[in-house]
Amino acid sequence: MNKCLVCSASLEPFIDFGCMPLGNGFLRPEQFGDEYHFPMKVAFCAACGMVQLLHQPDRERMFHEHYAFFSGTSRYMALHFKAFADHVMADYLPDNDPFVVEMGSNDGIMLRNFAAVDIRHLGIDPSKNVAQVAIDKGIDTVTEFFDVELARRIVLEHGQADAFLAANVMCHIPYIHSIVEGIGILLKPGGVVMFEDPYLGDVMEKSSYDQLYDEHTFLFSVTSISNLFDRYGMEVIDVEPQVTHGGSMRYVIAHRGARSVSPNVARQRQREHDQGLQLPESYDRFRRNCEESRDKLMALLRSLKAQGKRVVGYGATSKSTTITNYCGITPDLVEFISDTTPIKQGTFSPGAHIPVRPDEEFGRKYPDYALLFAWNHAKEIMENEKAFRASGGKWIVYVPQVAILD
């Protein structure tokens, strides 16, 4: 019997995606025979409200010295994280020698804003290749996994933190109790935790099932996060909806009673109740929506192939791994995937083995259609690819529904 990672209640999956490869497991042809897969099933815990994977690969398989995600490649995300950092500095840091810690600091895209004004900081990221980019820029970084023991060591070496930050990483960690306990140890009595992750309410509303892949152990809601942090004497004091990654939520958390609680928290919990996030039948409906989306996308791609049209994927994202493998998209339907990340170029997509090629090749001879895997960056991509549409090219999207954008 599967047990909830938060409260140990018994769980049953509401959707089964089958055997999935690693979302960021882009590979060379000689690696095809040894490619790793895991059973990707997702469950909802009616007891504590947490949506979670029932199985996840070992963390060392996902986060390592060849990790293929660099936050700094997106101009839009750089602006987003600067605004995040400015918000922390303006509203939550004391004037006297503040100390900021970020878990999953990646290439330093957020912490560089604190470093630029000489605020004491520490980044934590286990992926040595991306962490080295931050270190080379003068951003203090340790290449380890965060947990209770590391929290204690940081306190001994640097003192407690005024702010503990994370972005698109808290949801990655199955040993979540060690994380939250560690945060409680590391955080000053009046300090704040601020983190953002893809939001369950948005995923349910948009049927954006590609938010589920190996790294995303959890899909959080205000209700489930409140239940989790309450176990360690902390409470959600504010929530800030974000448009990033197709719909995220930023949670602001403090030691219980240390700061006033915004009415935003109660309002958001009521919205979740009104949306039915506490009801098992809502997740059955989500599964049916996913199946319908899959079937419509495959019918469209097969129709375009029958017409002799060229289709190219845009954005070799972790999310694209879920789409290609769940739907059964193969290289005969999508010729290649265009991507700007050098470490991915010249590789093949996980599972589906669709070639990944430099973005220059996309522009060299435009396809008839581009399947937008990186839909959460649609605004930035559309601005950069005006010539594609001017040439007669059309975008295929599948969130919130399968459609061709004229």
Characteristic key phrases:
Rossmann fold, 406 residues, seven-stranded mixed beta sheet, 2 domains, six-stranded mixed beta sheet, 14 helices, alpha/beta, globular
Textual characterization of the structure:
With 406 residues, the protein is an alpha/beta fold. The protein folds into two domains: 71-275, Rossmann fold (3-Layer(aba) Sandwich); 281-405, Rossmann fold (3-Layer(aba) Sandwich). It contains 14 helices and 19 strands. A seven-stranded mixed beta sheet has the order 8-7-6-9-10-13-12. A hairpin with a 5-residue loop joins strand 18 and strand 19 (403-405). The N and C termini lie far apart (48 Å).
Summarize the structure.
The chain has helices at 59-62, 75-91, 111-115, 128-136, 148-158, 176-186, 200-206, 222-230, 263-275, 280-306, 318-327, 359-364, 378-384, 386-390; strands at residues 2-3, 10-11, 13-21, 37-44, 51-53, 99-103, 120-124, 141-142, 161-167, 187-198, 218-219, 234-242, 248-255, 311-314, 337-339, 356-358, 369-372, 394-397, 403-405.
Provide the β-strand percentage band.
15-25%
Q: What gross morphology would you assign?
A: globular
Q: Helix/strand/pairing class, anyone?
A: alpha/beta
Q: What proportion of the residues is helical, as a percent range? A: 25-40%
Q: In which order are the strands of the major sheet placed? A: 8-7-6-9-10-13-12
CATH homolog superfamily of the largest domain: Vaccinia Virus protein VP39
Q: How many extended strands?
A: 19
Q: Predict the CATH topology of the largest domain.
A: Rossmann fold
Which runs of at least 5 residues are low in confidence (pLDDT < 50)?
Answer: none
